[in-house]
Amino acid sequence: MKLIVSRLSGFCFGVERAMKMALQAAKRSSKDLYTLGPLIHNPQAVIYLESLGIQPKDRVEEIPRGTVIFRSHGISKKDLEKVKEKGLKIIDATCPIVKKAHHAAKFLDRNGYPLVIVGDPKHPEVEAIRSYLRQEAMVVESPEAITKMGNYKRLGVIAQTTQNFEVFKKVVKACLEKAVEVRVFNTICHATALRQKEAVEIARKVDCMIVIGGYESGNTQRLVHICREVQPKTYHIETPKDLNPSWFKNIKRVGLTTGASTPSWIAQEVEKEIRRRNPQ
Known about the structure:
Blueprint: E1 2-5, H1 13-28, E2 33-36, H2 43-51, E3 54-57, E4 67-70, H3 77-86, E5 89-92, H4 96-110, E6 115-118, H5 124-131, E7 138-140, H6 143-147, E8 152-159, H7 165-176, E9 179-184, H8 190-205, E10 208-212, H9 218-230, E11 234-237, E12 253-258, H10 264-277
Parallel strand pairs: 1-12, 2-3, 2-4, 4-5, 6-7, 6-8, 8-9, 10-11, 10-12
Helix pairs in contact: 4-5, 8-9
């Protein structure tokens, strides 16, 4: 059996940056060190950070003192105000690419463009972006949502940074049919787009595709979806323990890729386990 491994596996730039900042903080002092929500959407990485003394908390009210690390997805305006009111020290690990999406959203909002965000309305990145806007943004996950809207003089469009570029293009096209003027900022992370493109290319070449990443990770779920469109035998796992031997029966070629928040050591363990069970 041949194994084709993605060259772009492991942490993306923003996640790697956030992890480095957290590890550096823990090295200085692990006392009273917290993250607001999981730093990244990978439970194994979060458990590792906890072992170093970095405690995840869901609410600012649960942080009594010390330092709070803002996760790579960003933080809402309300939570930022609470952090400042409590006098907590701040380590801002928000991904710079996510911050660019914030700037684009604020620009469009400030200039009177009703805003369409292509993304998951429940994702922390989208929730944070919406919290800084003066007017309510419309969050859509497909072009079909746009067809149900009324007509506008103008619309602004951005995307959650880990969105599928093809879906983004279709939403923009649908917006052009609903407004005289459409202002678009492509805020999708370039590395995410490349990862998705490579994953699809691998999925087309193999008989089975394995995508590694947290089950709550939006970007991993999108990788699974786009791979499954070209290779139905696409499976989403978090760790080597999730591998099912039946997936590899009579399979000659297996593809392997990861979400942007998956540690490289987990990908290496999965690769090692697949090769152990199915030697070439």
